Amino acid sequence: MNQSAGDYIFTLWEKFLMEDGIIIRAGFHDEVVVTCPPEDQQETIDKLYSAIDKVNSVLELEIPVGIDHKIGNNYSE
Fold first, then answer.
1. What is the pLDDT of residue 74?
2. Each residue of 33-48: pLDDT tens digit?
3. Distance CA 59, CA 56 (A)
4. What is the 3-state secondary structure (H, E, C) of the chain?
5. How far apart are the two ends of the chain, measured CA to CA in Å?
6. Which of 21, 28, 29, 54 measures 20 to 30 Å from 5, CA to CA?
């Protein structure tokens, strides 16, 4: 996969996140930073994975694209 395809996949994922109400605080290379109150944490995580499922549904790639997530009080965590 070339860089243009990777950028397209990432941007499509961001699009679906924003459509689902996620505010992206930062996005670079292959990661995003989002914030939410502690009580909305699981819902936010679910939206991250739902958005990548939408990407895979639209693109129908032979190998699905996946994500992982990390939680912390600041970026270094």
1. 85
2. 999 999 999 999 999 9
3. 5
4. CCHHHHHHHHHHHHHHHHHCCCCEEEEECCEEEECCCHHHHHHHHHHHHHHHHHHHHHHCCCCCCCCCCCCCCCCCC
5. 30
6. 21
